[in-house]
Batch of 4 targets.
Target 1
Amino acid sequence: MDELKLYTYIAVFGSFALYFAIAWWARAGSTSDFYVAGGDITPLQNGMAIGADWMSAASFISMAGLIAFLGYGGSVFLMGWTGGYVLLAMLLAPYMRKHGKFTVPEFISDRYYSKTARIVAVICLIIASLTYIIGQMKGVGVAFSRFLEVDYGLGLGIGMAVVWVYAVLGGMKGITYTQIAQYCVLIFAYTIPAVFISLQLTGNPIPQLGLGSTLADGSGVYLLDKLDMVVTDLGFKEYTTDNMGGTLNMFAYTMSLMIGTAGLPHVIMRFFTVPSVQAARSSAGYALVFIALLYTVAPAVGAMARLNLMNTIEPAAGQNLEYEARPQWFKDWETTGLLKFEDKNGDGKITYVADAEKNEMVKVDRDIMVLANPAIANLPNWVIALVAAGGLAAALSTAAGLLLAISSSISHDLMKGVLTPDLSDKNELLAGRIVMTIAILISGYLGLHPPGFAAGTVALAFGLAASSIFPALMMGIFAKKMSGTAAVWGMCSGIGVTMLYVFQHKGIMFIPGTSFLGDMGPDWFFGISPNAFGAVGALVNFAVAFIVLRFTGPAPAHIQDMVDNFRSPYGKIEASHDH
Amino acid sequence: MEGETTYWQENLRLIFISLVIWFVVSFGLGILLVEPLNEFRLGGYKLGFWFAQQGSIYTFVGLVFWYSAKMNKLDKKYKVEES
């Protein structure tokens, strides 16, 4: 066994052993432990757990790669996925915590006194969460097969077993404490290579400052200016100004991600685990600090990875790398098929330019940038091993949080709330565990046989949350008179137009060949792309709800009293419930 | 109740101020005004680019803590802390 493999085994299985130990120590005894960790997690702990829950394989592996190739346009992810926490902290979390229930659909059903509303919310939640998990499971499979060189399916199986043990055993309590450990693993794994690379390129160890510094090669040129120059010389768009389909599209995209983030149930339900309203507000702040640590490093990782890649292929203008002299990491990623070279002009050298006719780097998968980065920069083996453990921590922690959201919405909202209201606490706990086991098996199966529409559905998850759940929750808190009928109409129209626009571009249920653009060009609605359409769906939701409210009359008085109650931290929890 | 500000009204005022700042640093300085701002520099960063990829995030963190601290004071002022 070589050194790298040994280090990787130690990092990966060492971290797994830690998660198991924590799960055993914090196993759940009641439904309250299982759903909301008994409601006594401190804001600092909760902030860290939310950070790990939120930062998935997509944040850890994909985001910096996206930024590396989108440049300034990649800012939509940075602003969108952090700005949503401002909305959560001010518009949703404190009031929902005060109301004091276990799940998001339960809040919606109380506030809108409607089982229909609850069922609509459960459906949105399950679709959004399942599509997310598929991505995490794929991430686990890829990390195992690349770093430990085991079969993709076996890697996936090991990942499923690990999540099963600590999520089913520990519920929210076990998941929360495990996620705190996972946060530490993933943030170290992300920042250590970034510090090394920043130091190499600019002499400044802090990546956020390194990105704005001059290069360490003595030329006195700023890193970003150099990068702009290198990419424009080869015909690519300028790194710092490339704005991804125009200003309006960036605006709508950022807005969709922000309100989508604030509307994702697996994030909102974390605020039910803290002891007070004050703690709910401050845990949003701590969560954002822990998330910002990674999100402000990511643009440095992206830009530096792009520059290193360009410099490796063309060390000086016109002096392209001989294909035979390519470095080891290049060969490794070629074998995975994520990196492809085709010698079009037959000169034995690698030409990497924007022009598709002449470009010989026919495939550079964006997802490899973070994983390949330490090798491109010639960092020591233990750093590479750490990155593998970090990627797994990011994927596992998010998968566990999502599984809990799914199992609670089925066992608590559908079974206990709608189908079998007299379910005992003990049986509900058992049902939660069984549902979670089934959800793990389904998501594992889908990770092994990813449906053709897997890639497109992540956008749908944000679109759904942005156009249905966020407006319903916000109106429930800020528009006291909003009625159940109006809210259900709003949710359905919001989801309706969003799905219509997405399906129109990408096919009905993402089945190829069923897209129905007709005479309308792509992005026909003011140049807004389907991924950015959730913001428009949310506007439709608000508009329809208020119009219907005008014609059907306001919510009953006892519901308005309930709203007054959860607007203030003072007073009893669960007012006007069950009567 | 006429003329007297309530807990909820003061809360709405704080939320409004916060959301104006939230909007200005991200959508305003990071997207709508990015081109004129890019004429200015912050070290190697173009200023608009810096707001989009760094500045807006730092401001968000500050905002959430500021709002949280203000609300804790408001809770005390109106004696609505959780018992």
Target 2
Amino acid sequence: MSESANPAQPAVPTPFLLRRLHSLAGLLPIGAFVIMHLTTNASVVWGELGKGGVETYQHEVNFIHSMPLLLLIEIFGLWLPIAFHSILGFYYAFTGTSNVKHYGYGANWRYALQRFTGYFGFIFILYHVATLRWGWTWLPFSSGFDAHMAASTTAQAIRGGMDPTALAGFLIGALYLVGVLALVYHLANGLWTFAITWGITVSEGAQRRWGFACTGFGLAMAAVGTMAFVGFVTLDIEAAQQTESQMHAEVVNADTPAINELADNDNNNTTHQR
Amino acid sequence: MTTATQSKARTIRFKIKRSDGPGKPSYWQTFNVPVNKGEGANVISCLQYIAANPITADGTATTPVAWKAGCLEEVCGACTMVINGKVRQSCSCMMDTVAPNEGDTITLEPMRKFPVVRDLFVDRARLFESLKRVKAWVPTDNLWDLGAGPIETPEQHEVRYKLSECMSCGCCMDACPQFHKIEDDAKWQNAFIGAAPISQVRYFNLHETGATLKTERLNEMAAKGGISDCGNAQNCVKHCPKSIPLTESIAAVGRDTTIHAVKQFFTGK
């Protein structure tokens, strides 16, 4: 009681506030973004199955890149929240010691798995963002992302970079598939514990029912993520490049002549023509 | 035991993790204990046999194994220990159920999360300190007559009676991956409090007079080592010998703490 009367003390204890912000950040914005990101990726297999996918995906990417202040959205809406959730998450995870060896129950395994997928998912996100967004292509088996050549460069990256070997392709492909599935688990199970943490599901029945809902959500997201993965792995990269160049040219030609010229130079000099 | 017929008798091997005192290294010893079917032998009666016959299975004389027991009917929690890898009361661990055959082995270890005093005897003082942390009582000390107590509906009674059955045995804490053994009692205050005291917060906040201390209890829940340290592994509810819905209590107190914190955020008190 005396704490709240003291103006030097925050009204809500800081450790508690950080905990709840950590919990909230996992859902908003990170969880919401993951849902959007995976469904956007899956658009590569939408349309006339295998034909319209490249166009649909390119269209989605163009929309995202047309957003105003995209970099600020990325920094404050994604990178900082993810860093916050990860760093605190590592700290919180280290306060626990898994005991599935003695108590091998489902919920206890999910507890352990939530922490493991957190560690693994963080490494995956770091590699993924560093190579495809920050262009750290010096990282092993990697290549960058080009927003004008969205599907082809994504497919290239997932297959192990510009000069893929069988090993690189397998390693990076596995990293992406396992990474996505791990994060989907982390999100679905996180939704389940979120409801307990905030006191939304109190009774055992409510927790069980919400568990079914989260399982369904997780399976659906896993299907969406896997669909996108298969779409990029099986993509005809050369055909995709042609479609993308064509789309880019249409956009460029629709603009003013001056920009047209600049863009043409750009087209000739950079990665757009492979 | 001598009057028992041969067909009813069997020998059970007890593998016991022992330690000669606080901070002393642990070691394992095995004892053979004769048991008769249908005579209600439990871990305590077998430990009594070992105390009377402190000779290991290989014939070496040793010190009697120390343990603690109280009620012998699973309502005091004193005899809690780790049996075959899982925490439970040893008085209600019946030999005819867990070791029905000749030569069956029972493994006994002291509780993992409480400081060992000797052998299977642990110091559970932290449990009492935890109850003090959450003010697990109804404040009735006054100089005037408080009158009749509050009327409780059967529905309230049903919820609270179950919560009142907690005997502070520590099973929920021993099975919890977020609860750790701490020898230094100065560090108990900021360490995770565990499921039982959280359930007691719910229990006493549901009581009309007990609720006078609700704010203080929820402040403790919002403090370091409170409700947020729960990782939802839910081992606690699986190992509560009284089947108290501990995970429901954790969620209910989580809800109350959320509401409490939102109020604090906007009103400052």
Target 3
Amino acid sequence: MSEPDDSRDLEARLRKWEATTLKEALRALPERRGEFVTTSSRPVKRLYTPLDLRNKPFEERLGEPGEFPYTRGIHPTMYRGRLWTMRMFAGYGSAEDTNKRFKYLISHGETGLSVAFDMPTLYGYDTDAPPAKGEFGTCGVAVSSLDDMEILFRGIDVGKISTSMTINAPADVIWAMYLGMAEKQGVPMTSLRGTIQNDILKEYEAQKEWIFPPEASMRLVVDTFAFGAKEVPQWNTISISGYHIREAGATAGQELAFTLANGMEYVRWGVDRGLNVDAFAPRLSFFFNAHNDLFEEIAKYRAARRIWAREMRDTFGAKNPRSWLLRTHAQTAGVSLTAQQPEVNIVRTTIQALAAVLGGTQSLHTNSYDEAYQVPNEKAVRIALRTQQILAHESGVANTVDPLGGSYYLEALTDELEEEAYRYFDRIQEFGGVIAAIRKGFIQQEIANSAYRYQREIEDKQRIIVGVNDFVVDEQSEVEPLRVTQASLNAQLGRLARLRRMRDRKKWEASLDRLRKACEDEDVNTMPRILDAVRARATLGEICDVMRECFGVWEEPLLY
Amino acid sequence: MAKKIRVLMAKPGLDGHDRGVKVIARALRDAGMEVIYTGLRQSPEDIVEAAIQEDVDAIGLSCLSGAHMALFPEVVQLLRKRHASDIVVAGGGIIPEEDIPKLRKAGIKAVFGPGTPLRDIVAFFEKAGSAKGA
């Protein structure tokens, strides 16, 4: 951005400043530590200046908002036009319990729904399956059938509100249940808006809720891309997620790198299937973490947009600018919440949410202060939602586009994160791609190494976590407990038993047979068959059992 | 030379959150213990079988999904059934405070919540291992 003469002047001025003003200041008061680092242990310099940005054309890397490479945001007016969607991840107990929570959240001003499923559902088991023992509704809602899905959205017009569903290995089945539910509400598929997470690669890497081996899973994912592009055009058929990679211990740079590498892997599989990249890429969406380190987090969102736009345009040859856009959801860092002095988590969440907004997110979930203990209670979740409303309506940060653009520090961090991502892309390429790197345990080990280093830094007090290793008080937790009731479990078990008894057995059997044939034939898209099975009242577990038989199950490399 | 303390680190149930269990496994290994990590989705039967086969001094259970009350006590009961009650069992994860006394009563010797210093956990297993070795 600077003429050579200007930067020589600046260099000279800085040298003088270092020799005089700075030197004196350091003599009077040495700095607090020898090295300053980010939450991700990235070294931070004392001062950033235009000299940090001079190596590459500044404007080209930034662009204008709403234009390639979208560093400053995907919309020309950003939040002046429309605020981000306030979308609170919610789910516990039975479909009835969670339906009540959804209505509570809507009544308090949330603008999009987001479903958390329980462990058995995430893993493709019905509530009454033996491995589900003790897991019903504890960290999400149990959905075993179309009936459950109908209850979950009773009294909510799914033609009007968008719904995001955190579901991966059985994403196609749960999506089919949603489509079946909408059909019964009388809402056509073409007007449905929402997202299925459907990001299986990060399951192998971090979240670990996989069922089938990678190749079979990828085929199922591409089936949803193809089906969605044709039948449910406003639906995001995937949310490529760094969130869980970060929660599992990755640094900001690793989160960025692994997420985008996964994203490009999905695009390759779609293209290899013969899909036109512009037919499905506009429906790819993303999901990033918002952690404690304000500037590093903002930089991560900006770097992500820039890399994605470039790769989609230049590597994959996408022509439609909508294919270049990295649209993202964000969630504050669950892993940063402390059980100690839990109310203080409200402050952490505020800073993290601010990072996501300054980073230009399209939707946001804010964690509740009691989540180091449990699924949040009503009061805690309302405060979390209010945090977003304060950012939107009181803080002023939504009044202008990319307010921190041009900050020497932020721009330098954005560049650094981008470079780190490309270094990881190269390493993954050396393994032979993402799936090969997963099979070798490379990505998992990188994440585990970072998690351990972070914990050691806390242990050694190189890193202060307020209330945990400093500023500690002796206290009893005052978090109001939220419990899943036996009555909810009984209702769910009763409903399942009734469904199995009452359904048309012939229709049900035929639908599962047809699904089995589709699984065995790669040229047949599984989605319509799954939808038929769901309509015939096949349960999640039954459908996944058919697939388990056809595809087998994944065994991960053991490492720590 | 003293026999190395052997610890089985296990994830019972369907929960896939393995950050904590892996960090603990590594901390115990760095402290000189022999650590066997079972991997995810182990039933209480699998865990007890592995503990006996591997002749461990202690078991560390990790669960963040909320299923701890259904899974942790069962491990202790199965150990009793197999006459292996000398194997010490500890647990950790997202565990509401009101559950801790119940788990202790069920024979879980220690419950470690979020934010527990690694050194406390290492010290617990060192003590458990040397008590059993004696």
Target 4
Amino acid sequence: MVKGVYAIIAILLLIPLVVLLDIPSYNSVNPTLFGISFFYWYQMLWMPLGAILFYIAAILWNREEKAGRTVSRRRR
Amino acid sequence: MINDLSVGVFVFLFAVFVALGFYGSRWRKGDLRKLKEWGMAGSRIGTFLGWFLLGADIYTAYTFIAVPSSLFAKGSIYFFAAPYVIITYAFAMWAMPKFWKIANDHGYLTVSDFVRSIFNSRLLAISVAIVGIVAELPYIALQIVGMQAVLIALLASNGVVTGIIEISLIVSFIILAAFTWTSGLRGATLGSLLKDALILISIAVVVLAVLAAGGFHSALLSAPKNISYFTLPSSLYNAYWSLFVLSALALYLYPHVINGTLAQTDPARVRKTASLLPLYSIGLGFLAMFGFMIYGVPAALHYVNGFPASIQGTQVVPGLILTLLPSWLSGAALLGIFIGGLVPAAIMAIAAANLFTRNIAKEFYPKMTPHGETRTAQVFAVVFKFLALGFVFIIPATFAIQLQLFGGILILQILPPFVFGMITKKLNKWALWLGLVVGVASGLYMMEAANHFAQWTTTLMATGFGPVFIGLFALLINIAIVLVGTAVANYLGLSNGEEGHTAARQARGRVARTSR
């Protein structure tokens, strides 16, 4: 059985992919930011947002693996 | 502005960079006669330096020269590089810690080591190594094209004769070869710190200067009307997603990126480093936008238009730097881009040399000693660097960029043995080998066909759904052959033989015993 935390990790990792695959949703000039088309700045906005989501996923994942390792060591 | 001060700053910072490179041999000192110490910094690189090392692996002349150049010439489609350098890290967070653990458990130093033992096939391992090296060479050549562009910007506008540029390139490569020889990956990693500091400052200053000069909207308005810059034409949607998704899969298959990953201290850090790398992409995003920003800076545009059409694109970023920055800062920024080509070239040559030593040379001379391995890798790191340099002197710059994109199509073909291999051992080795060969051949054929058997200018193929990245088709053909071939082999009762897993288990036993 896949643990709940792995489902959360998968969702966190997939959000940027799904968002960026929906090209029509961001392929427009307006709203502009400092005169830059939405098309450009929206994708760049997902760089820091992606880093935040990925970082949370990395923390959860590493903690889960560390816990997994200690359990298997105890069983031995 | 470029004057003697810029050249002076450039030369001074280059000296600092070289000193850092040689100092690398003493940093977290190890026995540099061992391949793992020389070629992988003994896996002693933590989160902070790992971030810069992977940054140097990933943000290269591709970022500074190829992407802005393509956006400048062909419009918004080339902004695919932005989503690409976000989602690639999701893949990396899964695949790289997994591979780090496997490699550490079994003593693998390359992907080919892994493929050889898990599928019990020398042929497959050697083929994977050849594809890796062949894909890496044009990537090194692209770095040199970037360095050349910087030298042209720095020297040509001062009225220096052209021969000087070739000589400067050769001299910097000899220096690079010397410190890679002595310090290995350590030297390159320390150099990448300086490079990133210089580049991030320069990007910020250029962006502010463009804002001051009239802003991005006027730049977009002044761009040529026959090419789409404001948004993406809907006919290119399939081109856009296929380029960014497949490029994202390809990045972490390159030998230098794998090598940089294995150079880190532990899998948890590998994952954390990857998760934070999208922050680094912000710089790439701005550099890509330099491709249209230049239309808002008449002086820079005038400068770029002074060059022959074939190298105009490569002068976009240097052009903005030298028209918008004060002379001392433009010297520093140009050096940042220069070593932004030099450091990755060193890392790529090290990775290609590791692969050549472990998986080609050693297959034919199994008696090679550990020190012999390191010596072979040192020699071949030099050979690969100068091969790529020779390459650049022969072929035009635009062609080098296309070759690098073709390298992406090639490297994707090792995905089935490597990535599927981490999930299942049940694939047939002959099916994997045939998939690899046909994937490479079909990629080459589609590339030729899409360019009408003339000089390569595109990696997109026209389909009923608009243009699509050739890498997608080549990989799908490869995967189809692997799956069908495995099914046929299973039906015929053919197996990969037992050697792989048992050998790996024995090796693990040995490692465990010696480490105790």
